[in-house]
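Hi R.,

Quick one: here's the Creatininase sequence you asked about.
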Amino acid sequence: MVEAYLRQDDRCVLPLGCTEQHATLSLATDTLLAERVAREAAEDLGVPVFPALAYGITPTFAAYPGTLSVRTTTYLALLDDLLSGLHQQGFRRILVVNGHGGNVPGQGWLGEWLARHPQARVQWHNWWNAPRTWAAVQATDELASHASWMESFPWTRLEGASAPEDRKPMVDLSALRQLPPAEVRARLGDGNFGGLHRRPDREMQRIWQEAVGETRALLQGGWA
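And here's the predicted structure, written out as tokens:
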């Protein structure tokens, strides 16, 4: 089926996630969101979506049990293998839907890969802070961050895990980036950077539809 598809189209989607603490949400939050937004964006277009890469670069949260991080060199080598494999099979337009901020070293590295594969076109899409989606988040609540309400969807919540109702002050991110994992956990507490832990589902659905539409638009017309 993939072979037949490649005779008439060369697009595909590769979602990237990670496995890390997300306060009251699933350890797989970034993976679940990246894969789902990619799948919903592509489903009416017939473009294949590959399984999400579930591990990423997240050493900052290493003091939280359940967080699993890979070294940057390992991650870039894995991206190289995956993108090169897709290219070898005939995919020439690859949309990378990234769900984790820690994975952005791959975005800078991508230029090296493209220099070796001049016939390929790759879009790196950080879905959660892409222009249209981030505008929808900010219009809903300006205090939005890692492990806060902006990542709390029905499919990222844990059954039986209650969410605090307080509006957590935003952590000083510049200070947090200077600290080793144990001190990060001591300062951060439950893992939420700042803001409410949840907002009403009707608000979340509006943001989600914007994210799906923005991702679909890149698949349809974002190619150079």
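DSSP finds eight helices and three strands in the chain.

Cheers,
M.
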